[in-house]
Amino acid sequence: MVQIFSFKAFRPPAAEAQQIASVPPYDVVSTEESRAALAENPQSFLQVIRSEATLPADTDPAAPVVYETAAANLHKLIDEGLLLQDAEPGIYLYRVKQGGSIYTGFVANVSVDDYRDNKIKRHEHTRYDKEEDRTRHIDTTDMHTGLVVLLYRDPPGEIFPPILPPLFRKVCPTVSQRATVRFMRSSALLTRRPSARCRRCLQALMPSILQTATTVPNHPSI
User: Which of 36, 71, 44 is nearest to 143 (CA)?
Assistant: First the structure.
């Protein structure tokens, strides 16, 4: 079993979320691309995850000033109310749309020990310079600013049902455990296109959940 833990996230207000969100993630966008994106949208979170793009072009990307600037830019967003920390810890619903498929998961903390013990399988050989860069970034900002995506099998729907019913019931009080299981099986956990019925459920429920930024109680382990 892999342990998961809730946490108090920093998130932008709903009205600012589209401006602050940075897509794609830091490791697939160059400094030059980040600089161009920030010129169009100075509020982008790229100012934190690719902070060298806010410095002179001849700045060494591994220089201490890069990480110090990332921390300064992060705290500026917090100080200006553009990133707000939730009052209570939670596990967060996360949705990705790609082509005709919708993938839904959750954001939580996991144990480093589970990674070391190979309960969380490694999917690639990472480069030391990339590891060192992100380690220095986390140490200096005192915050994890990027998601690590983990995949898991859940054909019986044993993971999501304990987590999601409180979420769905807050939006739709009449939703049942069985309906939640059926919904998550068909729309979230399988790599196939959800049924028309579940797409309607997804369209009706998910925007409300994401807009109200609902969190759910800690789930000790999966």
Answer: 71
Distance CA 219, CA 63 (A): 40
Tell me how far apart the alpha carbons of residues 197 and 216 are, in angstroms, rounded to a whole number: 25
Closest C-alpha to 207, from 93, 121, 127? 93
pLDDT tens digits along 30-47: 999 999 999 999 999 999
First to last CA, the chain: 6
| Pairwise CA distance, residues 23 & 20, whole Å | 10
List of long-range contacts for 114-121, beta carbons under 8 Å, 24+ apart: 114/2, 114/3, 119/1, 119/2, 120/2, 120/150
What size, in residues, is the chain? Answer: 222
Q: What pLDDT is recorded for position 207?
A: 42
Q: Are 120 and 150 in contact (CB under 8 A)?
A: yes
Mean pLDDT of the chain: 75
Reported pTM: 0.70
Sign of the Cα torsion 148, 154, 159, 163 reads positive
Encode 159-168: b = buried (16+ Cβ within 10 Å), e = exposed.
bbbbbbbebb
